[in-house]
Amino acid sequence: MELEVWKLVMLWLDSQELANLAQTGRAMAEVVRSLTAYRAGDVTQGQETIVVPIVNDVDGCRYPNFSYTPFCQISLISSREHSRVKWGLPKSPRRKLVEADFGGAVTMGSTLPDAGCKCPDTCSTSGNVSGNEDIGRKNIEQLRRKRRKLPRCGCGRLVGGQIAYDGASRLRVLTKCGNVQSTGEYDLEEGEGNCSQDVDDHAQMTRDLTNQEQAVVPSSLIECGPACACHSDCKCRVSQHGVSVKLKVVRSRYKGWSLRANQDIGRGTFVCEYAGELVTSTEARERHREYDSLMKWGNWQGSALLVLREHLPSGRASVRVNIDATRVGNVARFINHSCDGGNLLPCIIRLAGCPIPKLGLFAERSIFDGEELTYSYGAGVTPGQDARPCFCGTSACLGTLPSEFT
């Protein structure tokens, strides 16, 4: 019974504390060994349908210490109270995730009931028949009549109205056009046009993404959400089921932890969202100061505080979402910066009926098994004694990581 109580306490201990505890006895050492193997075996702590292993051939750090969440969660803890995080326990069997199970964006704030689609079962953005139909020759005419009666679904589209996903649920915005940090313009497949030219007056025109106080300008799309009548398996809910491809967290000598593909990833494939704690702007600034202080004293490797901003066309109003994945987050917290733009495309995703946007990361090009996943943190660089060196290793490397004040 006493050992079972200790197992509950161990969930709050980091790797060094567990190592010290293992010295107290043989039984305790066995429990610590088992818990360490579990933590190193799956960085998602059993909360994704796909296991994400940890690989470290560089030093003795077995795993990063943080609490995993597949989706953004509202934080009720201030920076002063935020000294420890709790690891999850193994979950069995694994099942397909639904965002509402984790208090994700679909449960945050008030739902806008009139904003969603009325599609039965699953949506059709191109006028095709929705639902699971067994299409045969005898049913062709009947399906054609049904197709003509179906309304065109407004979900699963870019802000300019173009269809966001293809038949394989891959993003159709694939290549950044020019300097994404300054223009935010993207090329679309199949002659869809430039999304920056098609946005209407009611859409957000400028989007600043700040990761560790760094900024880039991503594209934007709308998915089915809590206000929609369609099923959770709808093809217009691509980003709402957690990590969709095989990944691994790998330790490197200069960058620290990094995220790599554990399979070939096709161009346009959704990889993951940037998940963490949703905090107020005041709390975000306090945490930023705390993280900077820890780094100056050498007690911190870095933060994963991201600020997502949406500006209205007038430029007078904006929506700011602060996501801190430093102590509570998902696999996206391990994605490093690349000065050449990287191989991932950041994209703002709004769920129909949900007032809070989120950030999705898609494969901008084909990614090979074992390749590191990266994206550009931004263009703004603040030189000085606090500037952090960049180790992206690309021909476009500027030598320091982008940074700006919040």
From TrEMBL:
Q: Which compartments does it reside in?
A: Chromosome
Q: Which InterPro entries match?
A: H3K9_HMTase_SUVAR3-9 (IPR051357), Post-SET_dom (IPR003616), Pre-SET_dom (IPR007728), SET_dom (IPR001214), SET_dom_sf (IPR046341)
The chain positions of domain Post-SET read 386-402
GO molecular function ontology, one term from the record: methyltransferase activity
Domain SET, chain residue ranges per copy: 245-378
S-adenosyl-L-methionine among the record's keywords? yes
Query: Primary place of residence?
Result: nucleus
Q: Does the keyword Methyltransferase apply?
A: yes
One Pfam family assigned to this protein is SET
Residues forming the Pre-SET domain are 115-242
What keywords would UniProt list here?
Chromosome, Methyltransferase, S-adenosyl-L-methionine, Transferase
Q: Which GO terms describe its biological process?
A: methylation
An example of a Gene Ontology cellular component annotation for this protein is: chromosome
Q: What is this protein called?
A: Histone-lysine N-methyltransferase
Q: Per the UniProt entry, what species is this protein from, by scientific name?
A: Riccia sorocarpa
| Lineage, top ranks | Eukaryota, Viridiplantae, Streptophyta, Embryophyta, Marchantiophyta
